[in-house]
Specification:
The protein is α/β, with parallel strands linked by helices. The structure holds guanosine-5'-monophosphate (5GP) and magnesium ion.
Protein backbone atom coordinates (compact mmCIF):
# COMPACT_ATOMS: atom_id res chain seq x y z
CA UNK A 1 0.00 0.00 0.00
CA UNK A 2 1.47 3.33 -1.04
CA UNK A 3 0.30 6.48 0.74
CA UNK A 4 -0.20 6.33 4.50
CA UNK A 5 -3.86 6.56 5.46
CA UNK A 6 -4.53 8.66 8.57
CA UNK A 7 -7.14 6.85 10.62
CA UNK A 8 -9.65 8.90 12.56
CA UNK A 9 -11.90 6.16 13.80
CA UNK A 10 -13.18 2.62 13.31
CA UNK A 11 -16.92 2.14 12.83
CA UNK A 12 -18.47 -1.23 13.72
CA UNK A 13 -19.84 -3.00 10.66
CA UNK A 14 -20.36 -6.47 12.18
CA UNK A 15 -19.95 -6.92 15.94
CA UNK A 16 -18.20 -9.93 17.50
CA UNK A 17 -21.58 -11.16 18.78
CA UNK A 18 -23.22 -10.80 15.36
CA UNK A 19 -20.35 -12.68 13.74
CA UNK A 20 -20.43 -15.50 16.30
CA UNK A 21 -24.16 -16.01 15.71
CA UNK A 22 -23.74 -15.95 11.94
CA UNK A 23 -20.76 -18.34 12.00
CA UNK A 24 -22.92 -20.89 13.87
CA UNK A 25 -25.58 -20.58 11.15
CA UNK A 26 -23.03 -21.00 8.35
CA UNK A 27 -21.55 -24.04 10.15
CA UNK A 28 -25.04 -25.58 10.28
CA UNK A 29 -25.37 -25.06 6.51
CA UNK A 30 -21.98 -26.72 5.97
CA UNK A 31 -22.99 -29.66 8.17
CA UNK A 32 -26.30 -29.99 6.29
CA UNK A 33 -24.32 -30.13 3.03
CA UNK A 34 -21.67 -32.70 3.98
CA UNK A 35 -23.01 -34.65 6.97
CA UNK A 36 -20.24 -36.97 8.16
CA UNK A 37 -18.46 -37.16 4.78
CA UNK A 38 -14.72 -36.60 4.89
CA UNK A 39 -14.17 -32.93 4.16
CA UNK A 40 -10.93 -31.01 3.60
CA UNK A 41 -11.41 -27.43 4.83
CA UNK A 42 -8.80 -25.11 3.33
CA UNK A 43 -8.01 -21.79 5.00
CA UNK A 44 -6.87 -18.94 2.76
CA UNK A 45 -4.11 -17.20 4.73
CA UNK A 46 -3.70 -14.79 6.21
CA UNK A 47 -7.12 -13.12 6.30
CA UNK A 48 -9.23 -16.28 6.53
CA UNK A 49 -7.64 -17.59 9.72
CA UNK A 50 -10.11 -16.21 12.28
CA UNK A 51 -13.29 -17.16 10.35
CA UNK A 52 -11.74 -20.56 9.56
CA UNK A 53 -10.87 -21.35 13.17
CA UNK A 54 -14.29 -20.29 14.47
CA UNK A 55 -16.13 -22.09 11.65
CA UNK A 56 -14.36 -25.45 11.93
CA UNK A 57 -14.90 -25.49 15.69
CA UNK A 58 -18.67 -25.10 15.15
CA UNK A 59 -18.90 -28.08 12.78
CA UNK A 60 -20.52 -31.28 14.02
CA UNK A 61 -18.77 -33.32 11.29
CA UNK A 62 -16.03 -35.44 12.90
CA UNK A 63 -14.35 -36.24 9.57
CA UNK A 64 -12.84 -32.84 8.89
CA UNK A 65 -9.24 -32.35 7.78
CA UNK A 66 -7.61 -28.92 7.78
CA UNK A 67 -5.14 -27.43 5.32
CA UNK A 68 -3.86 -23.99 4.38
CA UNK A 69 -2.97 -21.97 1.31
CA UNK A 70 -1.54 -18.53 0.96
CA UNK A 71 -2.05 -16.48 -2.19
CA UNK A 72 -0.04 -13.54 -3.39
CA UNK A 73 -1.30 -11.04 -5.89
CA UNK A 74 0.71 -8.33 -7.53
CA UNK A 75 -0.45 -4.76 -7.25
CA UNK A 76 -1.86 -2.63 -4.45
CA UNK A 77 -2.93 -4.63 -1.43
CA UNK A 78 -6.48 -3.26 -1.41
CA UNK A 79 -7.10 -4.00 -5.08
CA UNK A 80 -5.88 -7.37 -6.24
CA UNK A 81 -4.26 -7.33 -9.67
CA UNK A 82 -4.83 -9.83 -12.44
CA UNK A 83 -1.85 -11.99 -11.49
CA UNK A 84 -2.34 -14.35 -8.56
CA UNK A 85 0.09 -17.09 -7.45
CA UNK A 86 0.39 -19.59 -4.60
CA UNK A 87 2.91 -18.46 -2.04
CA UNK A 88 1.92 -21.61 -0.13
CA UNK A 89 -0.05 -24.55 -1.53
CA UNK A 90 -2.00 -27.20 0.40
CA UNK A 91 0.04 -30.15 1.66
CA UNK A 92 -2.67 -32.78 1.12
CA UNK A 93 -3.79 -34.45 -2.11
CA UNK A 94 -7.32 -33.13 -2.64
CA UNK A 95 -8.20 -35.34 -5.61
CA UNK A 96 -11.37 -37.33 -4.99
CA UNK A 97 -12.15 -35.42 -1.79
CA UNK A 98 -14.79 -32.92 -0.77
CA UNK A 99 -13.03 -29.56 -0.49
CA UNK A 100 -14.31 -26.39 1.15
CA UNK A 101 -12.28 -23.19 0.74
CA UNK A 102 -12.62 -20.65 3.56
CA UNK A 103 -11.83 -17.04 2.64
CA UNK A 104 -12.20 -13.72 4.47
CA UNK A 105 -13.71 -11.63 1.68
CA UNK A 106 -14.43 -12.01 -2.03
CA UNK A 107 -14.04 -8.66 -3.75
CA UNK A 108 -13.12 -8.61 -7.47
CA UNK A 109 -13.15 -12.41 -7.34
CA UNK A 110 -9.73 -12.75 -8.97
CA UNK A 111 -8.07 -14.53 -6.05
CA UNK A 112 -10.87 -17.08 -5.79
CA UNK A 113 -11.08 -17.55 -9.56
CA UNK A 114 -7.40 -18.55 -9.46
CA UNK A 115 -7.79 -20.88 -6.48
CA UNK A 116 -11.01 -22.52 -7.71
CA UNK A 117 -9.44 -23.16 -11.13
CA UNK A 118 -6.23 -24.56 -9.62
CA UNK A 119 -8.14 -26.86 -7.28
CA UNK A 120 -10.70 -27.94 -9.91
CA UNK A 121 -7.82 -29.19 -12.08
CA UNK A 122 -6.90 -31.63 -9.29
CA UNK A 123 -10.31 -33.31 -9.62
CA UNK A 124 -11.74 -33.03 -6.12
CA UNK A 125 -15.00 -34.90 -5.45
CA UNK A 126 -16.62 -31.52 -4.83
CA UNK A 127 -15.33 -27.96 -4.49
CA UNK A 128 -17.13 -25.19 -2.63
CA UNK A 129 -16.33 -21.75 -1.26
CA UNK A 130 -17.24 -20.20 2.08
CA UNK A 131 -16.55 -16.51 2.62
CA UNK A 132 -17.13 -14.37 5.67
CA UNK A 133 -17.97 -11.37 3.48
CA UNK A 134 -19.18 -11.26 -0.10
CA UNK A 135 -18.49 -7.78 -1.46
CA UNK A 136 -20.25 -7.16 -4.76
CA UNK A 137 -19.25 -3.78 -6.12
CA UNK A 138 -15.98 -4.75 -7.81
CA UNK A 139 -16.75 -8.34 -8.87
CA UNK A 140 -15.14 -8.94 -12.25
CA UNK A 141 -16.09 -12.54 -12.91
CA UNK A 142 -18.65 -15.19 -12.09
CA UNK A 143 -17.15 -16.37 -8.80
CA UNK A 144 -20.02 -17.24 -6.47
CA UNK A 145 -19.61 -18.32 -2.88
CA UNK A 146 -21.62 -21.31 -1.71
CA UNK A 147 -21.67 -20.22 1.94
CA UNK A 148 -21.75 -16.50 2.80
CA UNK A 149 -21.47 -14.91 6.22
CA UNK A 150 -22.43 -11.38 5.27
CA UNK A 151 -23.05 -9.45 2.05
CA UNK A 152 -21.64 -5.97 1.64
CA UNK A 153 -22.13 -3.67 -1.32
CA UNK A 154 -18.92 -1.65 -0.89
CA UNK A 155 -16.41 -0.25 1.60
CA UNK A 156 -13.05 -1.28 3.02
CA UNK A 157 -13.27 -3.31 6.21
CA UNK A 158 -10.78 -4.57 8.79
CA UNK A 159 -10.76 -6.88 11.80
CA UNK A 160 -11.60 -10.55 12.40
CA UNK A 161 -8.65 -11.54 10.20
CA UNK A 162 -8.86 -8.65 7.73
CA UNK A 163 -6.00 -6.16 7.72
CA UNK A 164 -5.02 -2.74 6.61
CA UNK A 165 -1.25 -2.92 5.94
CA UNK A 166 -1.08 -5.84 8.44
CA UNK A 167 -2.88 -3.90 11.19
CA UNK A 168 -6.23 -4.74 12.81
CA UNK A 169 -6.36 -8.50 12.04
CA UNK A 170 -6.79 -9.33 15.73
CA UNK A 171 -9.83 -7.11 16.33
CA UNK A 172 -12.82 -9.25 17.43
CA UNK A 173 -15.36 -7.55 15.14
CA UNK A 174 -15.39 -6.13 11.60
CA UNK A 175 -14.93 -2.39 11.25
CA UNK A 176 -14.86 0.25 8.56
CA UNK A 177 -11.95 2.69 8.65
CA UNK A 178 -13.00 6.32 8.94
CA UNK A 179 -10.14 8.37 7.44
CA UNK A 180 -9.12 11.74 8.88
P1 LIG B 1 -10.22 -10.22 -4.81
O1 LIG B 1 -9.20 -11.09 -5.47
O2 LIG B 1 -11.56 -10.90 -4.64
O3 LIG B 1 -10.34 -8.87 -5.44
O4 LIG B 1 -9.65 -9.84 -3.41
C1 LIG B 1 -9.70 -10.64 -2.35
C2 LIG B 1 -8.67 -10.18 -1.32
O5 LIG B 1 -8.50 -8.74 -1.29
C3 LIG B 1 -9.21 -10.54 0.03
O6 LIG B 1 -8.86 -11.85 0.36
C4 LIG B 1 -8.54 -9.50 0.91
O7 LIG B 1 -7.25 -9.92 1.25
C5 LIG B 1 -8.46 -8.26 0.03
N1 LIG B 1 -9.62 -7.39 0.29
C6 LIG B 1 -10.65 -7.12 -0.55
N2 LIG B 1 -11.55 -6.30 0.03
C7 LIG B 1 -11.06 -6.03 1.26
C8 LIG B 1 -11.54 -5.25 2.36
O8 LIG B 1 -12.60 -4.60 2.35
N3 LIG B 1 -10.74 -5.22 3.47
C9 LIG B 1 -9.57 -5.90 3.56
N4 LIG B 1 -8.89 -5.80 4.70
N5 LIG B 1 -9.10 -6.66 2.56
C10 LIG B 1 -9.84 -6.73 1.42
MG1 LIG C 1 -8.04 -13.06 1.63
Amino acid sequence: MGEELRIKDLRVVFSAEQIAARVREVAAQVDACYGEETLVVVCVLKGGFVFFSDLVRCLQNRNVELDFVRLASYGKSDVSSGHVIFSKDVESDISGKHVLIVEDIVDSGRSMRFLLDQFAARRPRSLRLATLVDKHERRQNTVKADFIGFSLERGFIVGYGLDYAERFRALPGVYEIIPE
